[in-house]
Amino acid sequence: MKTVNPLLVLMLTSGLSLAGFTSPAEPIPTDCRIGAVALGCQAWTFREFTVLEAIDKTAAAGGKIIELFPGQKLSPDKPGVVLDHNASAALIAEVKARLQKDGVRAVNYGVVPIPNNEAEARKIFNFAKELGLYGITTESVESIDVIEKLVKEYDIRVGFHNHPRLPANPGYKMWDPKYVQRVVRNRDRRIGATADVGHWVRSGLNPVDCLKILRGRVISVHLKDLNEKSPDARDVPFGTGVCDIPAILRELKHQKFAGNISIEYEHNWTNNLSDVAQCIGFVRGLGSQ
User: Fold this and answer.
1) Domains in the chain and their CATH numbers?
2) Which residues contact 187 (CB under 8 A, 6 or more apart)?
3) pTM score, whole prediction
4) pLDDT per residue over 120-131, tens digit each?
């Protein structure tokens, strides 16, 4: 007897079209977790190197996932080739091969401007789908209607990222989690925040309080520890600075956070591998608290 898919029956009997249907997105696999979270690097950490080198370094530091960013050079032997959402199938295949070789999973892409133009924005979502990404990171609030339409179609999450407060530019509001919460609160649940905890500290905010404001809307995290609470603070290994990393992770666990945590280490650019490894080791030492 042939098995009938009940979802297919429901769609046919209710008049729904199969053409626009996408199955639910795969969660980030459990084998990407270190402790209780899917942990690795934002490739920006290794911006002085190439994409393939960033993947290698993420693996060498002990990371399980990587968040790619647009415009990074592909490899030392192809200095004129960059990775972004206009990449050819061959280029994407080369990146996938290195990811598989190193045991690292690409889960996110950004920070990338998403045009307020469906055809152009679709290129970014197609790229994300081809790589099997969990999410996209942006600050393009003006494109929220296009983003929501494509989030529903592709079942790929989008997080709005925060840079620090800009006193000279009061029009920049993304630093404020209350503003981000207002932007996303009536939108599809797959639209939320990419929480950069270090930039919150640079803005004079408490990261745990910010996460609570965005409860249920945290798509992904850029995790940092800083040497001081000031706009000019620099990154330091986890557990040696002013950010309460254990409290941040406890709050994320309380919220049943299922996204990626990317270490974005913006210091000691050409020799930061041991610092990043120390960060990963710190989270590993916390276990599944």
Assistant:
1) 25-286 (3.20.20.150)
2) 144, 148
3) 0.90
4) 999 999 999 999
